[in-house]
Amino acid sequence: MPAFAGLKRFAGGHAPLGSLRGQLLRWLLVPLLALVAVNSVSLYRDALEAADIAYDRSLLASTRALAERVSVRDGKVVADVPYVALDSFETDTLGRIFYRVTGLRGETVSGYADLPPVPANVPRSELYPALVRFYQADYNGEPVRIAALLQPVYDDSMRGIALIQVGETLDARRALSRRILLNTLARQAVLVLAVATLVWFAVRLVLQPLMRLKNEVETRPLSDLSNVDQALVHREVRPLVDAMNGAMGRLQQLIAGQRRFIADASHQLRTPLTVLKTQAELALRENDPVAMREIVRSIAATTDSTVHLANRLLSVARIEHGGDSAAMMPVALPDVVRQVGLELALPAVQKSIDLSLDAPDEAWVKGQALLLHELVSNLVDNAIRYTPVGGTVLLRVAPQEDQVVLEVADSGPGVPEAERDKVFAPFYRAAAALEINPGGTGLGLAIVRDIVALHRGTVSLETADGGGLKVLVALPAARPSAA
């Protein structure tokens, strides 16, 4: 039925839900129509039962009136029925009536001898004190209702029981049944129409706050992300308004973060681009080939630094727009660390750094392989950049009960405890880092922090053996069978 078509969608389907007003009207009116139909059938049956009782009582009265005229004369049962009564029995304004009087030995005393006899299984009526039975039969091709009354008769010479039967056609009963049915349907139709009108107006009135909420949201300026007033809607709809306000709050935070990131990125990019422009102008005015080669070498170094900054900015943007929890899957972290170690082996060899790996064959974490690769690359790249020539960088993967810990330890200058919380902020650089690598971007650890947060892990800084920096990243473990 249309009223119940939305049940599957409510249970978890994704088909369009359609009109709320239409669904409310269907859910209210269709059950109401079903109840009215059941009620109409019940009322109709009760009315027919009452009509049958009334007609049976009238039929019994006619039978008793006839029984009063049955007596015994000269040893015979006689029925003293005047002609006026016979005329009234044979025809009635609402149908035809038939009668029969049966004597003590089963002989027909008066009336229609072929009137159907009393069936053997018809019980005596408990509604009346008389010995009467009611039954239906066919007579001359028409259905009739017959009352059979046992009437005691006696005189000085004999005693016995006479049978008086009076039957009538069902025309009057059928006419009354049709009238009762039509009256019942008319009343129920008026009731349904009145209820439907009231329900329609009630639903329209109840949904007006939702329409006001819709107009409030629809007419807002694009820049207006303030909370929606909960007083506009009913108590049951306020959780939806709370969710909308929460979504607007998160959207405000996202927009504010993007604006802050764009401002910081513009500021960071403006400096190397200005330097590039200045170096290019110097190269155009320089005639000495040796000096020009130095300028071009400076342009190449500035370009490398700018490309590195742009790549870091793209990594930040990728993290912000790649946080899809549905894309998380089991990833073998030792394989990612080995791959990064091979990719960055050349810079380590150029600085004579001992780059070592301590990892088991398998240690699975749930995450995105691309972002995990970016995380390890940033940590290893920072370790190599800030480790002096001839130093060491250790990569270790240690599985624990419900997590896998990645450790990147170097023999560089480390980070003072007072600055360990600050270095995760974008574009912040510690004093020791500025001395060793003035051209850094200050985005490496910020990217690491965002990727770890996306993977529901933790990151911390400690002092490594020998005074360097140790970065510990703990990520939730995953089952290898899920890979």
From TrEMBL:
Major site of localization recorded for this protein: membrane
Reaction equation(s) it catalyzes: ATP + protein L-histidine = ADP + protein N-phospho-L-histidine
Signal peptide: none
Xref: SUPFAM superfamilies: ATPase domain of HSP90 chaperone/DNA topoisomerase II/histidine kinase (SSF55874), Homodimeric domain of signal transducing histidine kinase (SSF47384)
Any one Gene Ontology cellular component term annotated for this protein: plasma membrane
UniProt keywords, alphabetically: Kinase, Membrane, Phosphoprotein, Transferase, Transmembrane, Transmembrane helix
Gene3D superfamilies noted in UniProt: 1.10.287.130, Histidine kinase-like ATPase, C-terminal domain
Enzyme class: transferase
Transmembrane is among the record's keywords: yes
Domain Histidine kinase: 264-479
UniProt subcellular location: Cell inner membrane
EC number in record: 2.7.13.3
Bilayer-crossing regions: 24-44, 180-203
Molecular functions (GO terms): phosphorelay sensor kinase activity
Membrane topology field: Multi-pass membrane protein
Name the UniProt record assigns to this protein: histidine kinase
Organism whose genome encodes this protein: Massilia litorea
